[in-house]
Amino acid sequence: MLLLAISVNGQLKTISWKKMSGITLLNNAGKTETISQTRVIVLVFLSPECPLCRNYIQVLNTLQKKHTEVQIFGIFPGTAYTAKQINDFQKEYKVSFNLLIDRKKELTHYLKATTTPESILISKLGAIPYRGLIDNWASGLGQKRKVTTEKFLENAIEDVLNQRIPATSQTKPIGCLINDI
């Protein structure tokens, strides 16, 4: 666990689990939930209108199935979507991980998320060893590779689970900007 507290460049960015657990989110049934320090988590900021988000659900489902010791949460920032719309999204795209709505965008602002889809990996100690792209399939807005050659999020998860510092700590997310709605 020591390696997750220190990186080769100094300290990794960290979050406060106390602050995180104080942020109230809504699940797709409309009930309040919080994210707590129980295990390694991945937060992926999503929008049901974003084509990249829709396309990445299968990749995220596969990651959740492969790494059951990691908890993935899809976070929908803002007030643009109702719990019913999120529930419909979950059913239509067969999402196998938890979906939560960040109505007040407290979590979004706290973690400085800007884009959907944007992934943030958080260790049990609260370190953020990776944030950014899920992989390099999308090379720009409207531009996609035929073959994915870099699996940034998956590699970072495996590094953290094996107590290694991820080779890539941050990438610039590509997708739809999170708006103020």
UniProtKB/TrEMBL annotation:
The GO terms this record gives for MF are:
antioxidant activity; oxidoreductase activity
- A Pfam family of this chain: AhpC-TSA
Q: Which domain of life is it from?
A: Bacteria
Give all residue intervals belonging to the Alkyl hydroperoxide reductase subunit C/ Thiol specific antioxidant domain: 23-130
Q: Which InterPro entries match?
A: AhpC/TSA, PRX-like1, Thioredoxin-like_sf
- Provide the protein name: AhpC/TSA family protein
